[in-house]
Design goal:
Length: 542
């Protein structure tokens, strides 16, 4: 086995070389890579199994909105050939089975500490190591600390008084009971109509006696056209996997899809409709956005596709008033993450389903018996919160990360995340954030962005070890340049025009700013590679 992380001469060694926080898709792959490098590595995971997002989000209808054969690890050609996805869009249980299989197949379990949450980590400048504390009372010193804690980890409740007074069960979609929820013949109230709401509402409607959906902002949803994958189709895709995986890595968004060449405003209205119809029938989340080059940069161009989707909603939802309520009008198409629809809009044609517009009549309180808006009381037996997450930064600022001079990451990021490449932060040596804020992450196929970050971090640690370095830290100047660059690139798009978890606007009091890098995963990868080629420019080494 090769030598472990570099040691400081005449100084004590830390308990371990690397601690990884989280055993989701990122943490598992990071563990695998660091073990290959010969590093003593421990992974702490709050859940009692691996899976991360796919462990926690067990609500009815939870499934991926990127095709299974695309949204999976690419690092192992053997794994690609062995694993057989059953549907075009995999369900949560199937993705969880896959991640469990990865943990077993690559012998990762001995290095996992499950059911254990990291609560605090303090950088010890003298020893150049992190001291990590957990909620089980463990304290571990480690040279490197890698946050693989996910982008959508910390669930967010609705800001409405009285939640605790509700007499029946309250289920957040991201904390769904493992044994399932009793919804049969109940009066169910759902708050929230983002991706989680759009997926669970049709399935809840099938079981509930009555369903009331409380909507604050409507979404744009495209048909998923999910279906089982046939044997010959899987075989054909597997034959192409090596080239396909390579193309994914070089692509703008981590999926191999045709890119547009023409402006929407140059096309005639009839051409546009023809194109949008073709995109609509693809059943791919990004298909409409990839119809023309300017849909995410030009309001007028965007309005052509937004109105196309509204037309589809009007054609599906029979009651015109309900159709109008479900039609987004306050933000451009694509600037909040669109959703894939399997029976969402048609659910509102059912007589036992009612849509309540919280913009017109805001929620006032939750009572023991249900919900009360400014106008009406809605009795309910079960309350479902599909209200999303303190995304992108919540998992990182939610633990006490204390860097140089006692500065906390929470304090440093109070006015928005300051990070170099979304991978590292000045004042926090030897700390890496997998798919951290201001990296492409959630705007791309996460599987591809996770692998890119994990491989970059692993190469960096190898470089440090081989060079005898014990400390790496982003410089303040590099961090400032990156934050400025990320904001400039985002401001060239329509993304900042929407209030959403992309901008921090969904959490009251959270700093606003676009939280992902909009410049493209291909451009970003090249930038990260150049930093490494230049001997880690923008970092100081000790
Ligand atoms: O969360 P969201 P999500 N009162 O923040 C509403 C990924 N994901 O869990 O828009 C009333 O999108 C809120 O209203 P508004 C995916 O990246 C992927 O659905 O803030 N309503 C909104 O309607 C996704 O984008 C998959 O006005 C309140 C909803 O709750 C991300 O996770 C599946 C409220 C929250 O929507 C998050 O999706 C699921 C309040 N106080 C998730 N607070 C797939 O792969 C919030 N809302 C398919």
């Amino acid at each position: 086995m090769p030598a472990a992380a570099a040691r400081i001469p005449d100084a004590p060694a830390p308990h371990t070389d690397a601690v990884v926080v989280g055993a989701g898709m990122s943490g598992l792959y990071q563990l695998l890579r660091l073990r290959e490098l010969g590093l003593r590595t421990r992974v702490f995971e709050a859940g009692d199994d691996v899976g991360g997002t796919w462990y926690w989000n067990r609500y009815p209808g939870a499934r991926c909105d990127i095709e299974s054969m695309t949204y999976s690890y690419s690092f192992s050609p053997a794994l690609d050939q062995e694993w057989v996805w059953s549907e075009r869009y995999a369900t949560q249980p199937e993705i969880l089975r896959y991640l469990r299989h990865v943990a077993d197949r690559f012998g990762l379990r001995p290095h996992l500490t499950l059911g254990t949450r990291v609560t605090r980590a303090v950088y010890d400048e003298r020893h150049r190591w992190w001291e990590v504390s957990t909620d089980t009372g463990e304290r571990v010193t480690t040279r490197f600390l890698i946050m693989a804690s996910g982008c959508s980890t910390v669930p967010k409740d609705p800001e409405v008084p009285g939640l605790d007074s509700f007499a029946g069960p309250v289920h957040h979609t991201a904390r769904w009971p493992r044994t399932g929820a009793d919804l049969d013949d109940r009066r169910v109230a759902v708050i929230g109509t983002g991706s989680s709401g759009v997926q669970c509402i049709p399935l809840i409607a099938r079981r509930a006696a009555a369903l009331t959906v409380f909507q604050r902002t409507p979404v744009y949803a495209l048909p998923a056209l999910n279906r089982p994958l046939s044997g010959p189709e899987v075989t054909a895709r597997k034959a192409e996997y090596p080239a396909f995986r390579d193309a994914q890595r070089r692509s703008k968004g981590g999926s191999v899809l045709p890119m547009p060449t023409r402006s929407a405003l140059e096309a005639s209205a009839a051409e546009r409709v023809e194109r949008y119809e073709a995109a609509w029938s693809e059943g791919v989340l990004s298909a409409l956005l990839r119809s023309y080059t300017d849909l995410l940069v030009d309001r007028a161009a965007n309005e052509t596709v937004a109105e196309f989707v509204r037309g589809k909603i009007r054609a599906t939802v029979t009651d015109p008033a309900t159709a109008e309520l479900l039609s987004p009008r306050t933000y451009p198409f694509g600037t909040k993450r669109p959703c894939l629809d399997t029976g969402y809009y048609t659910t509102f044609n059912q007589p036992h389903v009612r849509l309540v517009d919280l913009r017109r009549t805001p929620l006032v309180e939750v009572t023991a018996k249900g919900l009360r808006t400014e106008e009406e009381e809605f009795p309910a037996d079960v309350l479902v919160l599909a209200t999303g997450f303190d995304a992108m930064t919540g998992a990182l600022t939610g633990i006490d990360l204390v860097g140089r001079d006692g500065v906390t990451l929470r304090g440093k990021w109070a006015r928005g995340p300051l990070t170099y490449l979304g991978l590292a932060a000045a004042g926090f040596p030897n700390l890496f954030t997998v798919t951290g804020p201001l990296s492409p992450s959630v705007l791309t196929n996460m599987a591809v962005s996770i692998e890119q970050h994990v491989e970059w971090i692993t190469d960096c640690i190898r470089f440090l070890r081989d060079g005898g370095w014990t400390e790496i830290e982003a410089t303040g100047a590099a961090e400032r340049d990156w934050v400025r660059h990320a904001a400039e690139v985002a401001d060239r798009t329509l993304y900042p025009a929407a209030e959403s978890w992309y901008t921090g606007a969904n959490v009251p009091g959270k700093a606003r700013g676009f939280l992902a890098y909009t410049g493209g995963a291909d451009v970003y990868r090249e930038r990260c590679d150049a930093v490494a080629r230049d001997g880690y420019s923008g970092f100081t080494l000790a």
